[in-house]
Design brief:
- This protein is α/β, with parallel strands linked by helices and about 475 residues long.
- The chain is built from 12 helices and 22 strands.
- It starts with 6 loop residues before the first strand and ends with a strand.
Length: about 475
Amino acid sequence: MTAAARSILVGLDFGTTTSSALVAEAAVRRNAVTGRMELAVVRETYRSPLVFTPLVGERLDLAATLGLVDGWLACGGVGHGGDGIAGGGALVTGLTARRDNAASLVAAIRERLGTALVATADDPCLESWLAFQGSCAPLSRRHPDRSFIHLDIGGGTTNIASGRDGDVEATGCLFVGARHVRFVPGTRRIVSLTPLAGAAFTALGIAARPGDDLLPDDLDRLLDWYLALLGRAVAGAAVDPADRAWLGHLQVPFLPPGRPAGSDPPIVTLSGGVGELVYAAAGGTPLPGTTAFGDLGVDLARRLLTHPAWSRSWLEYRPEGGGRATVAGLLRHATRISGASIHLPDRAVLPLADLPIVGTLSPDVDDALLGRVLELARRCSGGAAVRVRGMQATAEMVRGFGGRLATALAAGGWPAHLPLVLLLDTNCGQALGQAATAWGRLGVPLVVVDELDLPDARWATLGAVCDGVVPVSFHGLR
């Protein structure tokens, strides 16, 4: 891609409470620090207002939601079918991802935007990683000697990520959010409880149910319990979903790295709707009135403002992104760009969406493991991807590992229609692809993309080639 070339990035986020979109213009360039190619945002071209996620009862209102999507894309200058889109993504998150028609929304987004985007339902670790990247990462890089724990508190979940110097070290997720209890706005009259909230009410001895008013003492008991869950997670106790004390509220275990004895405690930062309220109030903006949004958001923010251990950080360590941390992270960080040394005998193979990443290989992998990983890949009806780490661009290593791959592919009778993608973290994609196909003699649709930052993810999506490079998105982060 030439220096003057421009592409489009799109970020869509459908959360428990609100939905929004960002559209930006981006350019591909080489990062001066890492040496890798990357998509860099040149300017935002459209930022939608935050709107309540449309629901009909307990289901997504697909017609209304897709009407929003079409309007946002039109305002951002995005054509139907995703022409010109280089990356970004669409996330269906929190309790919205648990609606029984969430998959229909993902399918409809794919119809509109093609395979250039990742459309992911219920991928909490990816959401945690994106929230950190879209909000806390710049702050973390400004304080490289401190650990940060970022809490993205929305309507249905709190996505947790710990990191240092801009890098995420661990992720997790709790079912703690503002809309597990819904009220008539401006009152304490309960409209609905999620099953998780109902279980918490029962365990805490709260008798109120929909149609009743939530008494002040009961509200305090519930908020105390929610804050205790957040505190346990930050302290490193969120490790066992089977622990009955969580009452089913621990979705993904959170295992932050241990800290050296005597080191400073991690700095806690926030994003999401609740985080936006906290930082605004810490800066002097009064909190909205009682249940102004028909949920617990204002009450959770009020408690966090006076938290005995964390509140001192709200003014001193304020991250970027506010309530749009996830969609900002999605727009800017979900898509990697390959190096220019790609192996792609037939461009028509791309794009490829939602390829399972079936394993990780090193150049010195034994033949038995190599065979098992390729057999797993061969069983994937739509193709598969394999990470290759530590591949050096030397003739000896490329010929050696590539030749072993060629032998294994030929011995296994690799189907001529089934794509196999190798994802490399070093710069030797074209050479390895040539060696692994016996210099074109094997009829294997092998794609090799290199110079990638390779996260521990479950799936990869490859976009079409654009000026010699390939956009690659990862989701299902572990």
